[in-house]
Amino acid sequence: MTFGSLAQPPLIAGDRLICVTDKAVYALDIYTGKEVANEKGGFPHRLGVSFDDQPAPTHSRGAVFFMDGGKLICRQLSDGNIPTRLVDGKRVPRWTPPKIAGVTSLNANDDVVVVTHADPDTRICGFDPWTGAPVWGPVKVSKFSPGPVSTTRDAVVFVSGGHLFAVNIRSGDTRFDFAPSDPLSAAEAPQVGEVGNKSVVVATGTAAYGVDLRNGNQLWVHKAGNTRWCRPAISERYNRVVLGNKNNELFVLELTTGVVKWKAEVPDLAQVSIVGDQVYAGGRGSEAKLHVYNLTSGKKAYTLQLDDPGRMGLVTGHGILFVPGEKNIRAIPFADQNAALFNGRSSRITVTAPGGQFDFGENDFTIESWICTTTGGEVMSGFPTATGNDHHGFRVNVTDQGRLRFAVINRNADSSSPPSAR
């Protein structure tokens, strides 16, 4: 790579791996590792000179958000271009970059992009993810600077001044301020898991705490002497949280109750991750080893030594384990892929319907298709079995900006038109 060392762990966003250095924001295809480059602009996005630390990017609605020159930038995930909208038949930028100073974290969902900044106190504000217009804030939350931030569907959580704060994501008001007798560490982001009707925040000081996300009540505490903890890892599927500390102790607890299920001694323990039904625990750096355990039984499977494991920890998604090293990013498949990749040309599925079952007539019919895409393209099409004014086919596709399009076509697909609204 030609952009320098990573400033933050890579971000998995759809089928893109978004990488940030001090010089650029660039994107890789998560399945091939090829850089997504656009000759007409877009990725890679060259960053201006800045004396501020680059916060980790975030994504929502087919767009990635990051800071550049004190401005909150929005780019399409598909190609890195500026998102646009139609006004009087012309495409114009739909995003106006807001200016924000002292940004420490960015977190987005469908409704809002939440920006946390320190001056030096913690202030939070929200912006419309479609236009960049202010939604609420800035709201002062704490007189101390914030640590790393985690986001749920309706709240952001972080540690500031030894307290655990939760802020409602749609309004910016503080949901709770959890202050245990043991000051919490702001070195790592709190982790959140949802199991059944419970949402649990896990944060650490010299002990590890499970806190109810709804009201800030303490659910459990796990103590292991005077030590420091790695960033916890959570599996909602198995109702487990994995804790590791600087005493080389690895604990696996039930997330909702804090009951210890098993423990192990791990040499040079500096990071823990959950990959499917396995726990990866070990050190960081060129000589580090990762010890792999079954999440539910605690049985050790094997020890893994990577050529360049780096110092940012593991990133997982789409059945792939990503190892961001000092020089390279390595991708290791660890599970079966649950989705197919179709481009409509070299890879597609053709279904022959009995008779004229797929012919588009005067009666209503339903099309259901589940897709995940950042580039858009053809989703589904059907051709009539007979010619004539009463026999038509259809096409459904998605634009590169996520707009659904539907058209009616004739027998040979050499003529199509959008249907009339009724």
Note the main attributes of this structure.
mainly beta, four-stranded antiparallel sheet, 422 residues, single chain, globular
Structural summary, described in words:
The chain has no helices and 36 strands. The protein is an all-beta fold. The protein has a domain at 339-422. The strands form 10 sheets. The chain has a 4-stranded antiparallel sheet with strand order 1-2-3-4, with no helix packed on it. A hairpin with a 2-residue loop joins strand 19 and strand 20. It is globular. The model has no long low-confidence stretch (mean pLDDT 85).
**Gyration radius, rounded:** 24 Å
Distance between the termini: 53 Å
The main β sheet shows up as:
4 strands, antiparallel
Taking pLDDT < 50 over at least 5 consecutive residues as the criterion, the unreliable ranges are none
Structural class call reads mainly beta
Average predicted local confidence, pLDDT? 85
Main sheet: which strands, in order across? 1-2-3-4
DSSP summary: helix tally: 0
Please tally the β strands and state the result.
36
Oligomeric state as shown: single chain
Shape: globular
Strand content: 35-45%
